[in-house]
Amino acid sequence: MLLGFKTELKLNKEQRTAFLKHCGVARHAWNWGLALTKQILDYNKANPTEKIKFPTAFDLHKWLVALVKPECPWYYECSKSAPQQALTALRIAWDRCFKKVAGVPKFKKKGKRDSFTLEGTVKILGNNKIQVPKIGVLKTYERLPQVQPKSVTISRQADRWFISFRFEVESTPTPKAVEFVGVDLGVNHLATLSTGEVFDGAKSYKKYEQKLSRMQWLNRRKQVGSNKYRKAQLKVARLHRKIANIRKDTLHKITTYISKNHAVIGIEDLNVRGMLANGNLAKAIADMGFYEFRRQLTYKCELYGSKLVVVDRFYPSSKTCSGCGTKKETLLLSERKFHCEHCRVTIDRDLNAAINLRKAVS
């Protein structure tokens, strides 16, 4: 299986400047390709009998070399793979849009989610050095896996730069303490297992929400583009990064424990997008990270030799009694205890759902 690796880079001033140039080239190529493809779609919509073939990633790169590079000589200061990979990513984004998996691609803005991809001569030199095209040798703070990646992606979070790549690993099955387990996700507690174990979420956004709001309020009158404005935005970005890191660390610890110690794991197919439409709970749901929880659990089950079973989202795990199987017609969200009128059992709502999920996969 393919496993991703991401680590922070130790850079000097020249390397930071080179990274910013590569980000600018990749962003310019993306925006140029997006504007061109949108024009083609608009023309095809207006002229259904004289449609133009939608370009492939190879066509976009060929037109970029012929039309854009002669007018923009600063393209040659960067690796040719940066704009090429940006156009490949754009074509993938359009494919996802046509399949209705994602929305329409958007134009990129300077300073937001800056990243670029390099391929070609990528070599890992020793424990904490990696060589990439055009830029040269980069140092890292931690040990690198001794593999030879074909491509790397360099991205920025606030004022720190990270490098990531994928490499092939073999799954390492671990002895499991429990055969079957059901996992119910919730807002009060992130994960409730059918064994009775309860894991709380980090709730990092809730913890730093007041501080973040205060920082943004103080910055409301700073002139956009000024030095004070950039410094203030950097402080906000650092706090956002801290919030995200706390959430990811908690999710990694929980999902690793579950996948290592349970053979078959049952989890409900939650409609997270629909849940986020609830204005009263959207903030708490987003702070828990339900999508990231399932994403991590999916690849970790493959890595540690476990089996993940996704139960249908319409399965009434919360409304069904885990003791006798009687199903309730209605169950309010405010009812945190499940009371069965048939067998007179009283049980925690989340634990009841987790037991039903375990029964569904066993």
Polypeptide structure, described:
With 362 residues, the chain is of the alpha+beta class. The protein is built from nine helices and 14 strands. It has helices at residues 13-46, 57-68, 81-98, 204-218, 227-261, 272-275, 282-288, 290-304, 349-361; strands at 2-10, 115-119, 123-125, 129-132, 136-140, 151-157, 160-168, 178-185, 191-193, 198-199, 262-268, 307-311, 337-339, 346-348. Strand 6 and strand 7 (160-168) form a beta hairpin. The mean pLDDT is 93.
Strands in their spatial order, largest beta sheet: 2-6-7-1-5-4-3
The number of E-state strands comes to: 14
Task: Kindly name the structural category.
Answer: alpha+beta
Number of helices, where a helix is a run of at least 4 consecutive DSSP H or I residues? 9
Order of helices and strands: EHHHEEEEEEEEEHHEHHHEEEH
The parts where pLDDT drops under 50 for at least 5 residues are none
Largest sheet, strands/sense/barrel: 7 strands, antiparallel
